[in-house]
Design brief:
The protein contains 9 helices and 16 strands. The protein is an alpha+beta fold and 301 residues long. The protein folds into 3 domains: 89 residues, Rossmann fold (3-Layer(aba) Sandwich); 63 residues, Dna Ligase, domain 1, CATH 3.30.1490; 106 residues, ATP-grasp fold, B domain (D-amino Acid Aminotransferase, Chain A, domain 1). The protein has a 5-stranded antiparallel beta sheet with strand order 14-13-12-15-16, with helices on both faces. Strands 2-1-6-7 form a 4-stranded parallel beta sheet, with helices on both faces. α1 packs across α9 and α2 runs antiparallel to α3. It is globular.
């Protein structure tokens, strides 16, 4: 097979592992900087070009699109789909998952467990918004934040009001969520491939920190998940329409709640914590499913 990997940095662990796994199975692999791809949009014969070369003849494309380039990255991926190239994750599914508010609304509609979440646009509504989500302590998240950036824990009502007012004053959209204290600064990353949880790890925040992201110093270890947690992760992935994703879950007093569905989950933490060859599993999934024109949109919304 001829496989394209959309990645801005070929030295990243996840990109390197995918290349290794693909080559180990005798596939030809090209790493393409998504921002250097450009396209000819035509109904007759849509094409993609890269540094002066025509990118035709690919069987599959694996998107590793960073959050900061979502708009252009998904446009490139959509062009590959128009050309009949099989995408590991479809462009519409990635944009659906990247929009945190939209993702939560879709998960809510499907009955997937979520933390109580509020969203407002005017400072006049802050008082009722805080009451609506159960009062302080609260977690306030910027919609555009990634890897724990733009996430604030407010211990008191006054702190919550001040942070929300500041965000609204800056015209920044933010979610207000209940703080799951019983999680103890840890979460569970469930790695889903093709509707199955193939690996899971528990991430624990460093002392004095409530964000468990590995980029912020969190530690990861192998964890055994419950059947309900497994069902929750699978349902979340299906709702987003993602073939491969990382579903982040907190263990709350009212059951597992989904914090985020990551459409480009890193491989380093999960492979090292579980000692599983996740990259090979992804390539195997591509081998089984990559058929020309197999770009049917999954999910709604």
């Amino acid at each position: 097979m001829k496989i394209a990997i959309l990645s801005r940095n070929p030295k990243l662990y996840s990109t390197r592992r995918l290349v290794e796994a693909a080559k180990a199975n005798c596939h030809r692999v090209w790493i393409l900087d998504v921002l250097r791809c450009y396209m000819n949009i035509t109904s007759a014969k849509p094409t993609m070009h890269y540094k002066g070369r025509d990118l035709s003849g690919f069987d599959a494309v694996i998107p590793r699109i960073g959050a900061s380039v979502t708009f252009y990255g998904t446009a490139v991926l959509r062009q590959f789909e128009m050309m009949g190239v099989y995408p590991l994750n479809e462009s519409v599914a990635i944009t659906r998952a990247r929009d945190k508010l939209r993702a939560l609304q879709l998960l809510s509609r499907k009955g997937v467990g979520l933390p109580i979440t509020g969203f407002a646009n005017k400072p006049d509504d802050i008082d009722d918004l805080i009451k609506m989500v159960g009062g302080a302590p609260l977690v306030i998240k910027l919609l555009q934040g990634t890897q724990g950036i733009g996430v604030v824990l407010t211990e008191t009502r006054e702190q919550a009001e001040s942070v929300i007012e500041s965000f609204l004053g800056l015209k920044a959209s933010a979610l207000v969520q209940e703080y799951i204290k019983e999680a103890g600064g840890s979460d569970i990353r469930c790695f889903v491939i093709g509707g199955k949880v193939v690996a899971s790890m528990q991430r624990q925040a460093v002392e004095g920190e409530f964000r468990s992201n590995l980029h912020r110093g969190g530690k990861a270890k192998l964890v055994k998940i419950t059947s309900l947690e497994r069902e929750t992760a699978i349902s979340a992935a299906k709702t987003m329409g993602l073939n491969v994703c990382g579903v982040d879950i907190l263990r709350s007093n009212h059951g597992p709640v989904v914090m985020e569905v990551n459409s480009s989950p890193g491989l380093k933490g999960i492979e090292r914590a579980t000692n599983k060859d996740i990259a090979a599993m992804i390539i195997k999934f591509v081998e089984v499913n990559a058929q020309k024109g197999n770009t049917r949109t999954r999910g709604k919304g």
